[in-house]
Amino acid sequence: MSNRIIKYICIFSISILVMPCSLSANDGVVLVSGDASITVKAVEGGLYKLNFSYQGTPIPTINPDATIFLELAGSKVLSGNYSSCVLNSNMLTCQALLTTSLGTNFNVSDIYIAKGNGIIELQRKIRLSNSKAGDRFFNSFFGFRTDEQATDLTRNEYFIPAVWYKGNFTVTGNIPEYIPQINDTYFYYREDRITLPLVMFRNPRTNFTLSIIHKDSKCETVIADGNGIYTDAGYQFGSLGIKRENKVIYTNFIYPGSEAERRGGRGPRYHPIQDDLVHEYNLELCFSSVNNYATAVKDSWGHAFELYNPTVYPVDLDVTYNGVIETLMHYYGEDTSMGGKYDAAGWPFEVDLTTFEPRNYDYQMGFVGMQVATGYYIYREGVETGNNDMIKKGEAVLNFWASKSQTSLGLPRDWYDPGWWGNTGTFRDGSNLRVNTGGMESLIAAWAFAKRSGIEKPEWLDACKRYGDWLIDNQNRDGSYYFSYNHRAINAQGKHPVTNSNKFLTICAVRYLVELHIAAQADSPGDNKYREAAEKAGDFCYRNIHNTYTYVSCVIDNPRTYDSESGQMALNGFLALYDLTKDAKWLTAAEQAATYTESWVHCMEIPVENDKGNRPTKFPRDRSIVGQHIIAIGHAGADLGFAWSSFAFYRLYLETGNEHYLKVARISAHNSKQSMNWDQSLFPGQQRGLQMEVFNVSGRRRENGAFTCLNWNYAAHLDPMFRFKDAFGTPNMEEVEKMSWENRKYYNDIYSHVQSANWGQDIEKPQ
């Protein structure tokens, strides 16, 4: 197609100078990308603008009469159209000059590139000349009026990673009141607050879906940002989101990244009016028709992930494995039978990363305590290496929880404060389903490992079955369980009273019941009671979590709202049911949970401030944020918790052949160790397994956080490594990758029959 050049006059929505331009009378030039198109349109006075459409339906820009939209001094609109447009094959190059009433010139260069399949890339550069101080500062916008009849915000669906999902404004979504609410106007989020710079809008009545992705963002800033200064040329990051005003839904990108007027936001950010300013960005505009929310999220997230192609930062997985085991042995608290001062052995709740001394030897069986899990790890390591000291210390922990933690009804009491120097400790109030199942899962694994190693520990399995029987006796008719129970009381019905009736922790019981079913076949072959309970619980979760896209409540020390760990629990539970039943619906549910889970993981580089100098940081300044995950809606706290998921994502890769899951598994296995002392460069001379628990990515970047190492940190790395050992004989995923595809599939199939409850039973080998 020959070049078509259209020249026309720029228009402005505030008092501006009209710049004379020569005019070409060629109207109707069209750039096409699949079902999306841009048409150059003549408007009143012989001027031109761009009209966007998808499948023939117009998609108006922010100002339908003017394609370019800027804001001066935070409120005054400066909008206009292009002075020239050149169409060359799949590229439409547009130029404009917008001038304020004071004389500041905004030279706008926009290049639209048709990439096929409804995708259009916008490459924008704005240069200022003749800058006038009276114009003060500005933002540029690009976006669309995606619904012009929005009487209700929730008549449409939205996705912004780690902050906005389908059920945000439902009762079960339960979002905190200090973040945007259903009747608010502004829902803009800086891209250093989210995990990829992406906003998605979907109309469920028509299936029209629009995603805007900030492509190639460097996400750079300066110290002034953390100090709350509104204006600086060093703000080189964007924000994305939704604005609802006068029944219109706007899906927008803003540069630099302002959160002005958003509830809980960090306020406005602007660029100054100055001639040497760098103001440029690339956007990927993705127009599509998607018939359900889950697929729309998967497609939009997947496309942004491919654009950023996050780097895997390799660590030596064997060194990290050994380093964490050594760290556990170093901080082990001996009981009085070993010459220690406690009436029960275990690990400190946390280790101070300035003094490297333990804080508070109090024991939680699961969740952030993970005492049973770490007892299992050193017990198994001792058996495998012939280290009797490890065996003794691991057994002591496992024996305590198996023999001392349960009530007469079988419910575990999950948090113990040990007694000192001959005194007896006490259990704290409350028993929480996630804490209980997270601890007792490891007791199943310990029993199964011992049995297949020729060691009989019937008391460990008995404890697991007592809890399994309690779960059967307390399962609700709909298959659910409650959030927590009072282990100190028994009511007239002979049960521990419910203390919190939230049902979304039910997913935490699924994998426990599946693996208990497998283990229980050792002495009760053909007894399916635990399997039946697992499937009932799974059906509840399929209806109430999977079908509604409601992954909430599993970060139990946060509000009962959307969080990253609810996705991890769903992935574990649904994958366990798929292994048990081979029903494809469970694999579909596991994949959906996987997409949700990875959407909480930072997959874009977010460096420290360019002028940070020698200011101290908590998270290492020279290591990548990629692979750290945001914990929950309502705050920007991030941690290493994505480490838990490397094995599950690797198995999804083997089950589906989708190499995306392999990449994500590697990010989980390697990048989650960016703040670990695995190579002793962070804390020279200290234990290799030490790693800070939680930190803030944004604000004063990497400066704030809990500079302590909790016991769950070790378990997050070792749990998937021990499962890799169960399935493939090595904790090192990269060693597994050296096996042939056929061998990996073979061992994966065997694992699916026994999971991590392999007690040496006969297995029908896959052909």
UniProtKB/TrEMBL annotation:
Signal peptide range in chain numbering: 1-25
SUPFAM superfamilies on file: Six-hairpin glycosidases (SSF48208)
Record key words, sorted: Signal
Domain of life: Bacteria
Name of the protein in its database record: Alpha-L-rhamnosidase six-hairpin glycosidase domain-containing protein
Lineage, highest ranks first: Bacteria, Pseudomonadati, Bacteroidota, Bacteroidia, Bacteroidales
